[in-house]
Description:
Blueprint lengths: L11 E7 L3 H12 L2 E7 L2 E8 L2 E7 L7 E7 L3 H10 L3 E9 L3 E7 L5 E7 L14 E8 L2 H12 L2 E4 L5 E6 L2 E8 L12 E7 L3 H10 L3 E2 L4 E3 L2 E7 L5 E6 L2
Parallel strand pairs: 1-4, 5-8, 9-12, 13-17
Antiparallel strand pairs: 1-5, 2-3, 3-4, 6-7, 7-8, 9-13, 10-11, 11-12, 14-16, 15-16, 16-17
Amino acid sequence: MPTKTPTTAGMPVWLDLMTPHSEAIRPFYEALLGWTFEQRGSEKGDYGVALSGSRPVAAVVPPFRGQSLWFLYFASTDVQADAERLRELGGQVSLGPLRVGDHGHLLMATDPTGAPFGLWQSGQPQGLGRTGAPGTFAWAELQTRDADRARDFYTALLNNTSRKVPGMEYHTLYRGQDQNVGVMQMDEIHWPPDLPSRWMLYFSVTNTDEAVRTAQASGGRPLSAPHDSPYGRLAVLQDPAGATFSVIQLP
C-alpha cells in the first residue's frame, strides 16, 4: 500500500466526504482519525477541509445526489480529454468537466460497472497532503460485480497496468512500479445482492480494535468485525450519516 503523497496522473489525488450533515459528522472523525477541520468557501458553496496535523487529507462537501458517501478522485492532466476517453471506454459522465475557481477542474463519473468516481485536474500544486500515516488515506479498492470489465476500464483510463493476486478474484493496479488501487470481485456470499459496485476507501489507524470501539462510542457502527489480512488488521465502518469506509492497522 502506498505511503507517499501521490501526484502522478492516474493515481488517487483527493477524497470528498459527501454528506448533508457536515457539522454533525465532524466530531466522529475528530475522535476516530484525529482530524481537525477548516471551514472554507467558494462560488460552489461552503466546504470543510479535514487536516491531519497541518496537512489536508480530505474535504467535507454537500452531497451530489443526496447520499452520504466517500468519493475518490484520480489525478488528470487533461480532464476534458479524459471525459471523452471514459465515454469511449463505457463509462458515463455525471457532472462536468467544470472549473472550481483557480483550484482546477473536476469531473464526476460512473464506471461501466456503476461505481461513482471523479477526476481532478489541478490548477495549482496540491492534492492529498499526507498518506499512509495514522488518520490518513491508506488504500482504495473497487468492489464490483464485474472485476474484469472494471479492470480493463481503469487500466485504460488511468494508464495503469494490472496484476492478479494469486488465489483471489482481486486485481492490483500499478502506475509504473507503484501499487495504485485494487479491484475486487463481489461474490454472492460476502456481499448482499442489492449492494452496488463502489469504491471502498481505507484509512490507517494505530489499532483497529480500538478504532471500532471509538467509532461505536461516537455514533458510528461496525459493518464487519476486526479481522486480520496479509496487509493488516481491517474493519468496515459506517459513520453516523451512513457513509461507509474501512480502517486498517498496517503491519
